[in-house]
Amino acid sequence: MCTTVIVGRLASTTGRVILGHNEDSGGRCMHQQFWVPGGSHSAGEFVEGEPGRARVPQAPVTLGTYWSNMLAPAPGSSFDQGMANDAGVVMCSNSGGDSYDGHLSDEEVGLFEGGIGFLLRRCVMERAHTAREAVEIAGELISKYGYWSPARNYSFADAQEAWVLNVVKGKHFVAHRVPDDKVVLISNYLAVRVVDFSDTENVIASPDLIDYAVKKGRFSPAAGSYYHEFDFSVAYQPDEIRLDPNKSIRMRTGWQYITGEVFDDPNHYPEMVEPAHKMSVEDVKAVLRLTAEETYQTQAGPTPSTRVRKTSLAPIRANPGWQISPMIRFIRCSGAARRLRIRTPMCLGSRWPAKFRRATNGRPSRTPAASISACPLTCSTSMKITAGSFTVRSAKS
User: Fold this and answer.
1) H or E segment at 185?
2) Which among 105, 95, 97, 94 has a CA at the least distance from the CA of 239?
3) Per-position b or e across 217-235, b if 16+ CB within 10 A of its CB
4) Cis peptide before 75 (omega within 30 of 0)
5) What is the pTM of this model?
6) How far is it, in rounded angstroms, from Cα 47 to Cα 58?
7) Can you tell me whether residue 355 is helix, strand or coil?
8) Mean pLDDT over residues 339-361, rounded?
9) How far is it, in rounded angstroms, from Cα 156 to Cα 143?
């Protein structure tokens, strides 16, 4: 499960977009960090994701990308990575649950060469210089190859604007720009609801999105309102996904914190709101750290004391630089701008191990757990990526 908060620049105390995201996971997981430098590539190069899926021609020039990856011991996951590139674009994603087309075969939904999954985020973030360009690149990839996973929310942001992209299995997608004065809250169902498809400056979608829903009997437009009453989430996803308490409870508690109001209809939570006051990074952290009484029972244990969350925050700057607040404290490291891997335990139930192993630029060492805060959520990390080095600094927030 995961939650995302997007704050438009005019709703933000920073004057920039704020993108916040957490992964709310129990059990034992490994959270990996990678820095992959950009570069030039030869004609004929391809990038590959999952076995048996499409190979995508590599771009002639790619941007450097910092990305995080949470892998279970097996078989791992293609869809939980957060990424940032050295053009100042960041992304995160939330599962969208299931979709009406999620059970159809690859052939029935028209996937080309098996479609793409993980490669969508990789290719976008290696190429996009703005959030809008990220959505445009994603749309081109989905239209050509198709998407093989049932449903997914993607959030892309730069310093000035943010976009939410929803995609379901096949070649159907919709993206809308987050208004500058609004806040968006996303859990684990398709977040895009009613949008104006004639507003091409703020909405990008597959051309047959509505026609396909009409053909399948999932949408019956009233006369004169073809573009203005279409609800993407309702047309492409069963109601039970939105009604799932594990999803709806995060929306209820989050919106209550942001607005002071209680919304009690899980099928009609707001898609976005104008907050009562401008939101800061600390406000977004607070939303992502909310714990409702109903969710105390997790894989980590039956009491609130074992409830843990990894939280990533990105107040986005125009130059390459991000601030991220992870679940545990990172350890300062720097080195040449090349592939960098830092291994850290993300969630280990109700207690930390005596020691954990990390590897920085291939130089392994052991660090006592005492160097990790006893209260993971009180730590913050700032990261700066430059042409010659990658540095992670840690401090109490």
Assistant:
1) strand 183-186
2) 97
3) eebeeeeeeeeeebbbbbb
4) yes
5) 0.76
6) 6
7) strand
8) 29
9) 18
Return the structure tokens found at 27.
Answer: 């059990």
pLDDT digits (tens, 9 = 90+) for 18-57: 999 987 666 666 677 889 999 999 999 999 988 899 999 9
How far apart CA 267 and CA 343 sit, in angstroms, is 39
Strands 147-157 and 2-7: unpaired
Q: Could you tell me the two tokens for 71?
A: 């892998």
Q: At 157, is the secondary structure helix, strand, or coil?
A: strand
Return the exposure string of 337-353: e unless at least 16 CB atoms fall within 10 Å of the residue's CB, then b.
beebebebbbbbeeebe
What is the spatial distance between Cα 395 and Cα 381, in angstroms, rounded to a whole number? 6
Helix-helix angle 118-127:131-145, to 10 degrees: 140
pLDDT in tens, 363-390: 322 222 222 122 222 222 333 333 333 3
CA dihedral 240, 246, 247, 249 (to 10 degrees): 110
* Helical segments of 71-117, H only: none
- Token digits of residue 219: 């949408």
